[in-house]
Amino acid sequence: MKRLVEDWVYGGVLAGLTLCVVAIGLAAQLETAELTVFLLIPIYMLHQYEEHAEDRFRLFGNKMLGGGAPLLTRFDVFVINVPGVWGIYSLVFTLAVTVNAGIGLIAAYTTLINALVHIAQAIRMRSYNPGLITAIVLFVPASSWSILTLSGSGTGFHILGLTVGLLIHGLIVAHVVRRQRLTQRATVDKPTSP
Fold this sequence. Notes:
Elements: H1 2-26, H2 32-52, H3 56-66, H4 74-98, H5 105-125, H6 132-149, H7 155-189
């Protein structure tokens, strides 16, 4: 399990490239809207490589937000990205194909929100953050294309997609804030040496 937690991103980038090739075959079988949802899975995997290879994002986040304190652990990053992205996006794609394509807006809006977070952070800090390039080059056009192809799904699906996307990102922020408070509390409560 330790190897999976530490090295998932390297298998992910290879899986992402493989799924891009698989998408060529799926293009003949899927509606365009469904294909755009499927493509968000490998596109996210490619983004994760830029973001997480060599533990970049976790180290960056801990340094910027926690002064080096472990606000995010390697296990946190694994859970957020493997079950949290691959698992949710796979489920969303399956439901989009078998129930209603509008469900795919969950993946589309979640991807777009993630891109906007990367871009806003770069503007605020006036510097690069891990994942910024693929957020701009891959996420913005892919999620926009998906949202446009699913635009006729109905307002309810757009609200659902946006709400779930914001909720997912909100849960991650809440986790980091909770860890930040615990770290600060531990520092304040730490007994001083005589």
